[in-house]
Amino acid sequence: MFCQKNGAKGEDPRLQAISEAIRVVPHFPKQGIMFQDITTLLLDHKAFKDAVDIFIDRYRDMSISVVAAGVEARGFIFGSSIALGIGAKFVPLCKPQKLPGEVISEKYVLEYGTDCLEMHLGAVKPSERVIIVDDLVATGGTLSAAIRLLERAGGEVVECACVIGLPDLKVQCRLNGKPLYILVEPRQVENCF
């Protein structure tokens, strides 16, 4: 797995505003979690547009046919915007029982149990070049399941892309040998109680 943070070859000046637009909510949804809330990024139209534009600039000339986003709402916001910007189709990856019609699914293990991703059968054609987009990557379990699902459908996963990636990600996540591109690392809040 390759983890590349945006700005590794020179910091993009837009990244600070993107990072600052993400609200950190201490102890949500449970004690000890520093939740990275991208809804405040969405309220800042310039920072939101800059985030999407950075991804579009990266993928515009890579012959990407499919932008797949998971799981559920937050990844969809960025994935659909990027798909429109690069002229690719958008494929939602959902939790079970959320898509009508025939689906293919991929179960995966979480720290506390199992979960499952589904996508429409036939949404990805063999040899289509795919990027997977999400808002945040923690352990990489969901992205790894998305890679397996898309490859089972015949897609060629080129890269995974996330707005936020944990700083110790290189140790924690396993993305089936696929590169991971992240814009920013989580901000910390001082004096949280």
From TrEMBL:
<keyword id="KW-0660">Purine salvage</keyword>
<keyword id="KW-0963">Cytoplasm</keyword>
<dbReference type="Pfam" id="PF00156">
    <property type="entry name" value="Pribosyltran"/>
</dbReference>
<dbReference type="InterPro" id="IPR005764">
    <property type="entry name" value="Ade_phspho_trans"/>
</dbReference>
<dbReference type="GO" id="GO:0003999">
    <property type="term" value="F:adenine phosphoribosyltransferase activity"/>
</dbReference>
<comment type="subunit">
    <text>Homodimer.</text>
</comment>
<dbReference type="GO" id="GO:0005829">
    <property type="term" value="C:cytosol"/>
</dbReference>
<dbReference type="InterPro" id="IPR029057">
    <property type="entry name" value="PRTase-like"/>
</dbReference>
<comment type="pathway">
    <text>Purine metabolism; AMP biosynthesis via salvage pathway; AMP from adenine: step 1/1.</text>
</comment>
<feature type="domain" description="Phosphoribosyltransferase">
    <location>
        <begin position="42"/>
        <end position="165"/>
    </location>
</feature>
<dbReference type="GO" id="GO:0006168">
    <property type="term" value="P:adenine salvage"/>
</dbReference>
<dbReference type="InterPro" id="IPR050120">
    <property type="entry name" value="Adenine_PRTase"/>
</dbReference>
<comment type="similarity">
    <text>Belongs to the purine/pyrimidine phosphoribosyltransferase family.</text>
</comment>
<dbReference type="GO" id="GO:0044209">
    <property type="term" value="P:AMP salvage"/>
</dbReference>
<dbReference type="InterPro" id="IPR000836">
    <property type="entry name" value="PRTase_dom"/>
</dbReference>
<keyword id="KW-0328">Glycosyltransferase</keyword>
<protein>
    <recommendedName>
        <fullName>adenine phosphoribosyltransferase</fullName>
        <ecNumber>2.4.2.7</ecNumber>
    </recommendedName>
</protein>
<keyword id="KW-0808">Transferase</keyword>
<dbReference type="GO" id="GO:0006166">
    <property type="term" value="P:purine ribonucleoside salvage"/>
</dbReference>
